[in-house]
Specification:
A hairpin with a 2-residue loop joins β1 and β2. The N terminus is likely disordered. α1 packs antiparallel against α2 and α3 runs antiparallel to α4. Helices cover 76% and strands 5% of the residues. It is mainly α. The protein has five helices and three strands, in the order βββααααα. The protein has a single domain, classed as Ferritin.
Length: 185
């Protein structure tokens, strides 16, 4: 009989993967979610240069470069939080972000008119932003409940940057979607 496939810290069960990692408190959940975000941000810093190279619009490329610099600062903020908590951000891989980024990578490989490709890349980038906003919203709530004012301040700063990045992408998409529509004519 074949052995079950194991992934990460869990093991396969009849219905999927069960985690052997126990979250005994809100503090444990807070740390786990912070590690997930840390992994996500690191994955994004690796993926963004490839998206910049694939983008056609100079304005889009500039927005991506700006957000890469912000993302690197967001990683630093998370490291600051881990240091204040006396722990490390290492040890967890954000599978959700991995999947979102894989979908975005598919857009890079597609054969499309430049504006059409950019429209698809913007859509993929907005999925990344929305995933991050959901994660940061949750950890801010945990930090508030736990009374960690410094973590709340740093995490709110990051959440505001993610919201702003999403707004920039929305503005870009309005212009680029028009160009993409013209490409089909």
């Amino acid at each position: 009989m074949p052995r079950p496939i194991t992934r990460g810290r869990g093991r396969a069960t009849g219905s999927g993967v069960r985690s052997d990692h126990k979250l005994g408190s809100l503090h444990d959940l807070f740390l786990d979610e912070l590690k997930d975000l840390y992994s996500a941000e690191q994955q994004i810093t690796k993926a963004l240069p490839r998206v910049v190279r694939a983008a056609a619009s100079e304005e889009f490329k500039q927005a991506l470069r700006h957000h890469l610099a912000e993302t690197m600062e967001q990683v630093r903020r998370l490291e600051q939080i881990f240091e204040s908590l006396g722990t490390s951000g290492k040890g967890k891989k954000c599978r959700g972000m991995e999947g979102v980024l894989e979908e975005g990578a598919e857009r890079i490989e597609e054969d499309a008119a430049p504006a059409v490709k950019d429209a698809g890349l913007i859509s993929a980038a907005q999925r990344v932003e929305h995933y991050e906003m959901a994660g940061y919203g949750s950890v801010i709530a945990y930090a508030e409940t736990l009374g960690d004012q410094e973590a709340m301040k740093l995490l709110r700063q990051t959440l505001e940057e993610e919201k702003k990045a999403d707004e920039v992408l929305t503005d870009l998409s309005e212009a680029i979607n028009g160009q993409a529509g013209d490409a089909e004519a």
